[in-house]
Amino acid sequence: MINNSYDVIIIGGGVVGCATARELTKYDLKIALLEKSTDICAGQSKANTAIIHGGYDAKPGTKKAYYNVLGNKMFGKVCEELDVPHEWNGSLVVSFESDQDDKIFELYQRGQKNGVPNLGIIKHDEIMRREPNINPEARLALDVQNGGICCPYELTIAYAENAAKNGADFFRSSQVTSIRRENEAWIVETPSQIFSCKAVVNCAGMYSDEIHNMVSKDKLSIQPRRGEYYLIDKKYASAFHSAIFQVPGKMGKGILIARTVDGTTLVGPTAEDIQDKTDTRTTAEGLSKALAGAKITWPSLPTRAFITTFSGLRSHCDRDDFVIGKVSDAPLFFDAAGVESPGLTSSPAIGFELAEMVAQALNSGKNDKFDPIRKGIPKFRELSNETRAKLIADNSDFAKVVCRCETVTEAEIREAIRRPVGAVTVDGIKIRTRAGMGRCQAGFCTPRVLEILSEELNIPLEMVRKFGGDSKYVYGKIFEASEASHD
Questions:
Q1: What is the phi/psi pair of residue 360, to 5°?
Q2: Which is nearest to 381 in space by CA: 405, 357, 363, 352?
Q3: Which end of the chain is least crowded, N or C, by CB within 10 Å?
């Protein structure tokens, strides 16, 4: 029995899926997004280098190159409309040995062919002037002026909130188990519901091959590629101005050192092909490689300032490129498959063009009521004392700091839950507010976050999850306080 009928169903709630949902709401279409996890932004979109790439690295003529350069041009406007933090601080790709110098010139030529603006090559003295903490063995650097940094999970959430505001429906905990063609419609099944739609857009990230292969004889294969990272405390936010890359290798762009928009510093990632699409462990071997690689760039790297480690997965396709557009043997089925780096930078362009393809195929008109503006949750830590006082006067929950490390208030946490496509887990609160992302890594704030989620969702503490599934914090009460004996 079909529960819901739509014009378009998007599969996957990462940055590309949510960007596509938002772009599709610019048209007169009924749209749904299905995400298998408990929350959106639960896969590779939440754990990456957070870089706005210039477009110099991808091979000329590839879809990676095309969407990277176009997405970079669109990125600033999208972030401004959606109130997402970003900064155009540039990138440097640095050679530290003489046999790497030719690669710098090769990347420059590649960037020129791709249409990357304002590229240059700088020498040792200029590198050291700009970045005094870099290894003094630095020889040459590709100067990528249109490189930048952003918050990938805040961008994904902003896309989703704006899409929901403009009419898109979001179904989380809705893993697609089958897709079939029936009477000129697509029937999309999940464990709890059956949907029908005219068109499907596959943005399933690590699982985009499996979704594609349900409908097409031209099979795809996704190779999970794990990257491990260290995160450095905000104390060292001024160590480097630009994102610092090493000369890339066959497995990717290599180990980088990059400040985040929130002031921490990323070190990594490694690149290891694995088999399990859910294996986001960090390993002693991987972290050792990340550290050794980072010290080539930053010999005095302060290892005592590490506050956490993590890993992310990249969906490397056997086509060695993005797979974007119509599937030839599946009518009104569209792919955004194998979108690895520079997928974050490319997301505005991929979403825009996919939505245009779908709208044209369905002969859809424009949605005159589309509103591109989304305002983020006020960040108490960034506000003036005057603005803070005004917020507290209107809502006393702004006076209750829950996360001391990041100065996140109870008002922000409650707002994160109440918003469209709001938080339903502790990790959902974390990526929407930064509660738990500071130096103590949630050691102080977790109990109160659990209580707030329990209150707002009207569920017992035992039902609150870290990220879904069986990721419980509380398993039950040992005894009631009134039962405690003091004899």
A1: -65, -40
A2: 405
A3: C
Radius of gyration from C-alpha coordinates of the chain: 23
The reported pLDDT for the residue numbered 251 is 61
Same domain, 307 and 412: no
Q: Are strands 256-259 and 265-268 parallel, antiparallel or unpaired?
A: antiparallel
Angle separating helix axes 63-82 and 152-165, nearest 10 degrees:
70
| Cβ neighbours for 42, distance < 8 A, ≥ 6 positions apart | 13, 35, 427, 467, 468
Establish whether 53 is a catalytic residue.
yes
Distance between CA atoms of 327 and 388, rounded to whole angstroms? 52
Is it the case that residue 483 has pLDDT exceeding 60? no
Last residue of a domain, one of 270, 294, 314: 314
User: DSSP per residue over 294-334, as a string?
Assistant: HHHH-TT--GGGEEEEEEEEEEEETTSS-EEEEETTEEEEE
pLDDT, position 8: 98
Strands 265-268 and 222-232: antiparallel
Burial class (CB in 10 A: 0-12, 13-18, 19+), 294: buried
Q: Residue 285 pLDDT > 60, yes or no?
A: yes
- The DSSP letter of residue 253 is S
Query: Number of structural domains, the chain?
Result: 2
Q: Residue 227: beta bridge partners?
A: 312
The DSSP secondary-structure symbol of 44 reads: G
The answer to whether the bond into 331 is cis (omega within 30° of 0) is no
Q: How many residues are recorded in the chain?
A: 487
Count CB atoms within 10 A of the CB of residue 324. Answer: 22
Q: Both 425 and 306 in a single domain?
A: no
Residues 401 and 278 in one domain: no
What is the identity of the amino acid at 286? G
> CA-to-CA distance for 248 and 342, rounded, in angstroms?
14
Which residues partner with 171 through β-bridges? 34
Contacts of 385 (CB under 8 A, 6+ apart): none
Asked if the model's pLDDT at residue 233 lies above 80, the reply is: yes
- What six digits make up the tokens of 255? 């180990």
Which CATH number does the domain housing residue 125 bear?
Answer: 3.30.9.10
Which domain, by its residues, includes 132?
Answer: 86-148+222-314
Q: Helices 410-418 & 446-457, crossing angle to 10 degrees?
A: 40
- How high is the pLDDT of residue 314? 95
Question: Tens of pLDDT along 141-184?
Answer: 999 999 999 999 999 999 999 999 999 999 999 999 999 999 99
If one compares 295 and 477, the residue with the highest pLDDT of the two is 295
Q: Considering 53, 86, 212, 316, which one is annotated as catalytic?
A: 53
pTM beyond 0.70: the answer is yes
More confident site: 483 or 322: 322
Cis preceding linkage at 420, omega within 30: no
205 in a domain, yes or no?
no
